Amino acid sequence: MIKVDGIILVTSCQKFLNTRLKEFNLKDDYGNWKVIYVIGDLFLDCNYKLEGNLMTIKCEDSYLHLFKKIVLSLKYLYEIFDIKEGVLRSNDDLVFNETRLKAFLVSPKYKIKINGKNEMNCIETDIDFLGSSFKGLSVINEPYKYEPSKSETSLHLVYYYKDHPEEFDNPLHNLKGVDIQKYSKMPYTPVFLKGPLIYFSNKSCKILIEHMENINYDIYHYDEKSNSYPYTIDDLAYPLILLPHKINLIHCDYWHKDLEGSYRTTDNSRYLAIHTNKYK
Question: pTM for the complete prediction?
Fold first, then answer.
């Protein structure tokens, strides 16, 4: 196995091979962190292949199957690499501040001290699950409570596929006859991280892999505890899987920023990455 400190995993799809991936602003390696780009090919004659920095995995290449693609990628990365710290999972539409990126990669991720609910109280914790929370909050040493009565339909996927009807006819996406409305019933979670950029420790990666192995990577699996289909939107699947395992969710104020609307006029230099192509 190839020893690395970590992996920067950039998830993409075949339609962006000659656009977003060619324009992506990262080098192949940062110290002993390796950059890997991943796409899906449902008709691949093996589980995966790695050519240079491009990994192709046998998986649907659709937006609906993004979480499956991510977790399968993690599974195969751990077969190829001996990973010391973890995986930084990135969308293909981010622009990185390399100075901030390098600083994060070399920063300590074990037994760090962060503020608790009372800012005067510092809590020592490992970084297992880190990114930008929608509510700007961390979840530290709090028990996870399933609240099935609060699950509700999210229109995010419905709108996406209304804008991209051609994807139902793409054989690589395997979406013929899929009822998007049905699989848009999402779990309630009090706080979750935005999907474009998330850091997972080895511990978190292995929990995600084990969970998906147990349901045979079936994104249409109904989760009784949450009364939802949580595996079709990755942002919501992560906390549902990780928080019950007592994994702390850590929010970072200057992790990434969506470059849209009034945010365009603000100073971007403090952020690790800018999300440039949201919802497109």
Answer: 0.93
